[in-house]
Amino acid sequence: MADTRARRVARGLLTTFYAIAGIGHLVFVDAVVRIVPPFVPAPRMVVLVTGLCELVGALGLMLPRWRRAAGWALAAYALCVWPANVQHAVMDLSRGTGLPIWYHAPRLFLQPVIVWWALWASGIVAPRRSSPRP
What we know:
The protein has 134 residues and is mostly helical.
């Protein structure tokens, strides 16, 4: 699959996104622990490990040898953290504290886009081409 300029830009943005998120998990551990769903064991350790996973995934996107593995891993990661994003929204919106709906709604609805973005930017999937018209 061709490594187009658009794919390189998308990969750079995704790398930056996950690097910042990973650093955030490691710097703001207590804040992130508060949004971990109650069914997740050892939330502090999970937050630290997920921060490291985001950093390793970002690094993997930059290395051609590891790019596809990083794409699969980051797509799976985006699915796995979705419950924490839902938990965060429920906490904030049900209590009337924290971040408003305009923050949470796009974050929740864009999660599938982030999954696709990881797969596309890493070269796993290609955009769908329309068939030629008769």
